[in-house]
Amino acid sequence: MSSSPLPEPGTGSGPASAPRPPDATRRSDRSRRAILDAALALVGEVGYNKLTIEAIAARAGVGKQTIYRWWPSKAAVLLDASLALAGDAQPEGAWRFPDTGDLAADLKSVLRATVDEFADERYAAPARALTAAGATDPELGARFTEQLLEPQLALYEERLRSAREAGQLPPETDLRLTVEMLLGPLTYRWLLRTAPLTHAFTDALVDAVLGGAGAGAGAGWDKS
């Protein structure tokens, strides 16, 4: 009997040297990511109205039937692309609303960052497109709200709840209404471009909303 060691798998001769079959899962993941990246790039270059499945497929290097196998429309592709972009920027569980004990400062910090994000076309172009598409496509709008917007709104509510429990907001404060009072004017100005979206605007917005809510010491409620 030969004392030579057996060939390592994938080396030498015989069945062990046969190439491994392609990993279909990895290939599929690469294709999906290429499609999502292509959708984000193209919507920033040509806008939503000129965005097509054919253009996305060509940019991603896949057949358009590959896209239709996973998504029913360009809007659905763009939604998943936006979710992936948000996940890259803020992996699940990695980001929390700041809580320094100063509610106004924390809100201003986050809204200033939102202004900066809206100024970045990587985020702004798909967000505008999805907002417009969701207004006429109820199913897409529901997914957009549930998967992209609600998790962000929940973080605002959590921070306001903490402030209410600390006596920095009146006990009867409607948390969701307060969140919408903060984000509604910001979104309106951004979408309709009624005026520049600046840090000064968001700072003034926070002061106005919290002042109306009676935030701060001496607001006249029992904090005991």
What features would you describe in this structure?
By secondary structure, this protein is mainly α. It is built from nine helices and no strands. Helix 1 packs across helix 6. The N and C termini lie far apart (about 90 Å). The N terminus and C terminus are likely disordered.
Keyphrases for this structure?
disordered C terminus, disordered N terminus, mainly alpha, 224 residues
What is this entry, summarized?
It is built from nine helices and no strands. By secondary structure, it is mainly alpha-helical.
Strand content: under 5%
Q: Helix fraction?
A: 55-70%
Write the H/E string, N to C: HHHHHHHHH
Return Rg in Å. 25 Å
Mean of residue pLDDT? 83
Residue windows where pLDDT falls under 50 for at least 5 positions: 1-14, 217-224
Instruction: Kindly state the number of beta strands.
Output: 0
Label the overall shape. Answer: elongated
End-to-end separation: 89 Å
Contiguous helical run count: 9
Largest sheet: none
Label the structural class: mainly alpha
